[in-house]
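Q:
Got a chain?
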Amino acid sequence: MYNGSSISDFILIGLSNPPEFRILLFSIILLMYFIAICGNLLILFITNFDASLNTPMYYFLSNLSVLDVICTTSTVPKMLFNVISQQKTISFNGCILQMFVFTVGMDTEFLLLTFMSLDRYLAICNPLRYTSIMSKKSCILMSVVVWTFGFSSSTFHSSSTLWMSFCGPRKINHFFCEVPQVLALSCTDISLNKSVLIVTDLILGLICIILIFISYVFIILAILNIRSTEGKKKAFSTCASHITVVLLFYGTLIFAYFKPSDDSSDMDKEIAVFYTIVIPMLNPILYSLRNKEVKASIQKSILRKIHFNTNSRSVLP
């Protein structure tokens, strides 16, 4: 038996892949990680430096991009190293830190997507009061609430792990330290931890899903009452990206938690790949390809850069 103060490391089993496909798998994951980081940093840049995008919707979008960067960066670099390395260990402190950072990102995103649906509801269903309700102060307060919840929830799960006892073997059948897999190795009574985990992931998730569903019921009814076809398209286009992101995020997590219990743990890892890499990679693509304002801002930034380079060359001797 090991306790939290004496254990030195865990062994991450990682993804099941034949040795001959390691380089290919490494290249694919690295490319997806590169796209995710660059895409989300681009969203962060244009939403913070383009004055036309200084609205509540893009303020929340910039928060979502920060969360995507956090989630991918907390898991993918170690995953890439383990794909090509024979030594797949992670230190005890490194495991706790990884679990803390990843849980902050996931739990915060639950509430953030809900507040983003509230923003769309107010913009479409109550446009006259939208500016006064969704003021800069209100947006900051909402972001403080979601980030505080994420940090509080993650702190409980991570700090409680420090006092647990662990029984060998210390193998985690995953490619990163996720709360359920780490708890499964403990010899300590984890009933309280499991209860809090259920409350956080299921009850909170269910509440968020219900609130998002109710918001979009009213949004759809409001859009149907718009007389002009162009007005309906414009109203729906402001929600399309968020609806797609919600379906991807919640759909993946619902499948992960409610899939048949006899499914293999390899499926758990495949699902985890989706919400740690694929979704963070798709989010900026969805918001840039399906949003005219974001596309216009990106094009304007590119043209400004080209114009600056052209002028720089013209003044050279």
Remarks:
- Confidence is low (pLDDT under 50) at residues 1-5.
- DSSP finds ten helices and five strands in the chain.
- Residues 2-295 form a domain with the Rhopdopsin 7-helix transmembrane proteins fold (CATH 1.20.1070.10).
